[in-house]
C-alpha cells in the first residue's frame, strides 16, 4: 500500500468513527487506539529482540561447530603421528608416568 493510500484509509476510518460514535465515547476510542499502538510497538520490539538473540545463538553454534571441527582435525593429526611413530598410547602413558616419577 502506498503512503497516500494509507493516509486516506486511516482518515476515512477516523471520519467514520467520528460520525458514527457518540462524542462522549471518542476519548475512550482514542485511548483504546493509543493502547493498541503501544501494544503493537511492544510486540514488534520483542520480536526484534528475540530475532537478534536467535541470531546470536546461531552464530555461537556455528562458531562452536568450527572449533569442534578444528579439534577433531588436530585429534586426527595426533593419531596419524602416533601411527607413524609406531608407539602405542600405552607406551606414551608409561613414558609420561616414568618421567613424572623421576
TrEMBL record:
Organism encoding this protein: Candidatus Galacturonatibacter soehngenii
Protein name listed in UniProt: DUF6774 domain-containing protein
Keyword Coiled coil: yes
InterPro entries xrefs: DUF6774
Residue stretches in coiled coil: 47-84
Alphabetized UniProt keyword annotations: Coiled coil
Organism domain of life: Bacteria
UniProt domain DUF6774: residue ranges: 23-50
Amino acid at each position: 500500500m502506498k503512503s497516500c493510500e494509507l493516509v486516506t484509509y486511516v482518515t476515512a476510518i477516523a471520519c467514520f468513527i467520528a460520525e458514527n460514535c457518540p462524542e462522549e465515547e471518542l476519548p475512550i476510542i482514542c485511548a483504546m487506539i493509543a493502547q493498541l499502538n503501544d501494544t503493537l510497538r511492544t510486540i514488534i520490539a520483542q520480536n526484534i529482540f528475540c530475532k537478534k538473540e536467535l541470531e546470536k545463538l546461531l552464530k555461537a553454534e556455528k562458531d562452536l561447530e568450527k572449533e569442534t571441527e578444528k579439534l577433531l582435525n588436530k585429534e586426527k593429526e595426533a593419531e596419524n603421528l602416533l601411527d607413524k611413530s609406531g608407539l602405542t598410547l600405552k607406551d606414551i602413558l608409561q613414558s609420561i608416568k616414568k618421567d613424572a616419577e623421576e
